[in-house]
């Protein structure tokens, strides 16, 4: 189809330009309205240092929170959050104070993309626990309008860097 359109205008002074409809911004902006199973990207905050652990789960975040607490209870540093609490002798608070669902989404590539975006955003602002595994800084996230994608984030510096 694209070649046919291009060939129609080949002998004219008209230049054909194509625009993608499948951009990173559009993929990250898609909302999932199913709230019955709160799976997705979550953060756990340390009560002592107020730094955060960003994670993802395809099961309920409540179940994942209990798993983190079980690791701490049995002195098992299997998760980065449990390792942070145990190694630094910090305190974890009650679920309603420390656990927050950041983005509801289902397991897959989109969930991993969201998780990396949240980790990078919090890493740039120095609010991620040191035990959190941080991938390389992805410059594509800086070009996305992070302040619009992640409401109430402190990403204005990141957005400004991407526009300069």
Write up this protein:
The protein is an alpha+beta fold and 164 residues long. It has a domain at 37-135: GIY-YIG endonuclease, CATH 3.40.1440. The chain contains nine helices and three strands; from the N terminus they run H-H-E-E-H-H-H-E-H-H-H-H. The protein has helices at 2-8, 24-29, 61-73, 80-88, 95-98, 109-124, 139-143, 146-149, 156-163; strands spanning 40-45, 52-57, 99-104. A three-stranded antiparallel beta sheet has the order 2-1-3, sandwiched between helices. A hairpin with a 6-residue loop joins strand 1 and strand 2 (52-57). Helix 3 (61-73) packs parallel to helix 4 (80-88). It is elongated, with a radius of gyration of 21 Å. 27% of the residues are buried. Mean pLDDT is 80; it is low at 153-164.
Tags for this entry?
164 residues, GIY-YIG endonuclease
Number of strands: 3
Query: How many H/I helical runs?
Result: 9
| CATH architectural type of the domain at 37-135 | 3-Layer(aba) Sandwich
Main CATH class of the domain at 37-135 = Alpha Beta
Radius of gyration (Å): 21 Å
Q: What is the terminal separation in angstroms?
A: 37 Å
CATH topology of the domain at 37-135, which one? GIY-YIG endonuclease
Helix content, binned percent: 40-55%
Proportion of beta-strand residues = 5-15%
Q: How confident overall, as mean pLDDT?
A: 80
Largest sheet features: 3 strands, antiparallel
Task: Please give the oligomerization state of what you see.
Answer: single chain
Structural classification: alpha+beta
């Amino acid at each position: 189809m694209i070649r046919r359109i291009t060939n129609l205008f080949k002998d004219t002074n008209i230049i054909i330009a194509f625009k993608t409809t499948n951009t990173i911004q559009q993929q990250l902006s898609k909302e999932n309205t199913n709230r019955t199973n709160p799976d997705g990207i979550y953060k756990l905050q340390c009560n002592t240092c107020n730094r955060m652990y960003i994670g993802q789960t395809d099961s309920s975040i409540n179940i994942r929170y209990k798993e983190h607490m079980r690791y701490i209870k049995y002195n098992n540093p299997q998760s980065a959050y449990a390792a942070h609490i145990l190694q630094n002798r910090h305190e974890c608070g009650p679920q309603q104070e420390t656990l927050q669902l950041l983005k509801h989404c289902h397991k897959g590539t989109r969930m991993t993309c969201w998780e990396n975006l949240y980790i990078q955003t919090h890493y740039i602002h120095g609010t991620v626990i040191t035990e959190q595994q941080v991938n390389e800084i992805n410059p594509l996230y800086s070009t996305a309008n992070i302040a619009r994608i992640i409401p109430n984030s402190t990403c204005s510096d990141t957005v400004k860097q991407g526009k300069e």
